[in-house]
Structure formats: structure tokens, C-alpha cells
Amino acid sequence: MSSLPLTGLRVLDLSRLLPGPYATLVLADLGATVDKVEEPEGGDYIRQMPPLRDDVSGLFYGLNRNKRSLTLNLKQPEGREALKRLVRHYDVLVESFRPGVMDKLGVGESVLRAENPRLIYCAISGYGQTGPDRLKAGHDLNYAARAGLLGYGGEAGGAPAFPGVQMGDIGGGSLFALVGILAALHERERTGQGRFVDVSMTDGALAFLHMHLASRLFMGAEGAALHRGKEALNGGYACYGLYRTADDRWLAVGALEPKFFAGVCERLGRPELLEDAYAPGEPGARVKAELTRLFAEHPLAYWQERFAGSDLCIEPVAEGDDVLKDPQLQARGLFVETEDAVLGRKVTHLLTPLRMGDTPLRAPPALGQHSREILEAAGFTAQELARLGH
């Protein structure tokens, strides 16, 4: 069996909840050794979050496979000293505290990189390490709102669209953390030095608007501000939108190019709709209204059959467990069932998208399960383990 790309990389994960743990999950799935540092009392907060089965959180289970757990009390001198010794043996540290928390504890980036100059220290926070709001509390919805993502989605004249997923947490936090860590690792090959990686979830969320906002900036005074539901890719074009069917399901019509939308119009028996499909104002709105009326006449299954094999950029909007039955996703091997010996039952894992080898699928660790193993490997004596409560 060939090794995974990140085999040999060692990561200390002090993060909690979603953004940091998803980033380190990807690293673990790519072969890195990820050791999760948790508080002795309770650990990562997500361990207690429902839904629970066999007293295990499904959210925690989904984010923390292939990791080990070490408990350290960083509020105690012994815990802080242990962390300083541990970082000498690691390549990457990830944390998601508010800016300044690690410094107040005496184990900030400058202290830890003095112990290990090759350490890549990645801090994920809501608004970043600088700026007037760097200490402000927030959650994904706040970051998406602040970055303009919410204001850009939804019907023209209507409310912003409530996101169904955590765009700021994963898109702005996890994925940009991964990019920063991997870039710093590449740089370290050249310089021999680590780096501080400052990840702001709000900054990262703003990146989703890059094409639109960069165009607006380029146009300057001649350009128009971004508007909800009025532009080509956010609902302004009839050929690129969501349409309700007779059974209250939805179709995603992404026939942006005229060659695709011409085919849609032919299948609908209304080729004349192409003429005004890209027109601004009332003409385009009439085409959209007509499509709304037409798609509402029949249930989703009818339209799936009508457009079967057409290659015209039309897909049903998957809901509920639809994605679990999708033959394309199944063929990609995204859902893998394993036997969890601790739980005594089979569990299906959702794999991370980037796979470059045979990813192991080890169950998430119990709180502190690997404390002695990790500390002993780092040279801690039995007496030192006892002082740390292990």
C-alpha cells in the first residue's frame, strides 16, 4: 500500500467545533498524524452537541476520525509547559481561540515558535488578528452577513437567502486554513522556517464574492453596486435560476450559455423564449415568469424524464437523503461503511473530497484516549505524567 501524501506530517490541533477540526480532518485523511489537544473537563464542546447516539455526538464523530486525543489543562503551569515541550515534535499547530487568548496563557505564537522555529502556527478566528473588530464575538451567519454573501443571495426585493450550510466556517475558515498551512509547508522546504498563518473567516467568506466584487472595483465610478437577485448568477437571468415544480420540489436550471438555454426552450416547446432570455428589465422578467409557470405545471419526476439525457445543465435540487442515493456520488466512493468496534455497529463515513490514496477510517478518539501514548513518545517521564493527571 502506497503512503498518503501527508504521511509523516505531525499536527497539534487545539481548535474546537467546526472550522479547525474540519481542516485537520482533511489533513488526517491525507495521512497526517493529528493529535487533538482538549481540556480535561468536557473536551471539545461539540462532543456534547446533539444528535447523540450511544452517548456519542454525530457531529463530533463526523469531524474527528483518524485523530488522537490528548488532554492538557492550559490554565495550569504544568499544562502550558507540556505544550511548549510538545511543539518541538510537531510541524503544524492549529487553534481557533479569540485573538490574544494564547498570548495571555503564555503559549502564543512567538513563545511556541521559539521552542520550534519550524512550527507553522495557524490561528482561525472570526475577524482575524488585526482590525477594530478582531475581538468581537460571532458565528458563521455573522461572518457571511459582514462579508456581503447574505446580501447578495435571495430574490430581488426580498429577504437575503438564509444559507443552509456554514460558508464562513468551512469555506472561509477550514479551506483557507488548509491553503495557508500547505503554502507555509512548501515555503519551509526552502527557508527552513515556520510561519504564522492568520485566517479570518470573514475575509475568507468575502472571497466567494471575488469575481463579482473585483469586477465592481475594476469598473470604478462607471460600475454598479452589487444587487440581490438582479445579476446573471444570483437570479437575474431566467436561464440561471431555481424553479418550483407541481409537487413542491425544485429544479436548478443552470443553462447560462445560449446554446444550452436554446435546448431548454426546445424541450419546453417554446423556442421563442430564447429571444428575450438575456434582456434586462421587463422582457427578461417575462421569460422568467413564463418558465415559473411552465415548471409549476408538472411534478419533478416528469421534468426529470423530459430532460433525461439532454445535457442542458438542469438538475433536481437534492433534499433530505437524496444525496445518499445519488449514483454519481456513490460511484465516487464518498460514502464508506466500516465496523466501529467500540460502538459495536457499522458506521458510514462521509469522506473528504480530496483523496490521494487509501485513506484510513479510524473512529474518533475518546477524550484523552491517547494522552499517555503521545506524552511518552515526546519523552515525558512517569512522574511528569502523574503531575499532568495522566
Automatic annotation (TrEMBL):
Protein keywords: Transferase
Classification via SUPFAM superfamilies: CoA-transferase family III (CaiB/BaiF)
GO molecular function: transferase activity
InterPro entries tied to this protein: CoA-transferase_III, CoA-Trfase_fam_III, CoA-Trfase_III_dom3_sf, CoA-Trfase_III_dom_1_sf
Name assigned to this protein: CoA transferase
Lineage: Bacteria, Pseudomonadati, Myxococcota, Myxococcia, Myxococcales
